[in-house]
Amino acid sequence: MNKLIKGLAATIAAGGVVLGGSALSSTASPVAQSQQAPVKFVKRSWDCFGHVGCLASAQLPSTWRHVKVDDFQNRFVDKQGQLAWFDTAYGAEVTTAQALKRKQKALKGVSGLRVISTATTTMKSATGQGPLTVSTIVYTYKKGKTTRWVATRYIGNWGYPDAAIELTVAGSPKNSKFLGTVLLKGTTTLTQGSN
């Protein structure tokens, strides 16, 4: 039984969320979102500079609004408060596993915190930037009377263990399956470099 629980936790952390006994597929598109119209995933680009073009991109929901937060920090949000946050210059001074431990420590004392899973694994890049080393924490917390579902992932591309990128996906727990798909697609289709 412990092996089954550990296996499910690793699958959740690596690919998003497992519901109903089957793992999410990175090829599922469009994706239904909690009884709403299907969501179309398209290539979204950011960190764009006139002299070199856009330095990052990933497949994300087409309707999510892009917000530049700071240099190399961007988020994509929808009207429900769901979001995907990218920090593409997180820092290569720590490994993805070390970044995960820092995150766990920083979460101590957060209201209503419940850690669902943590894992470090490798994934295949769909854009030739792998293998990817990924460390992921999936958790829920309370924001007032509302419960938020969050998955934060640290990504090292091209086979490096360094936490070069942070990706956080968040929203309502009822949409965790869809948010898991956003996490999976955001990870496997992520590119860095002029595109």
From TrEMBL:
Q: Which UniProt keywords apply?
A: Signal
Specify the signal sequence span: 1-28
Q: What is this protein called?
A: Uncharacterized protein
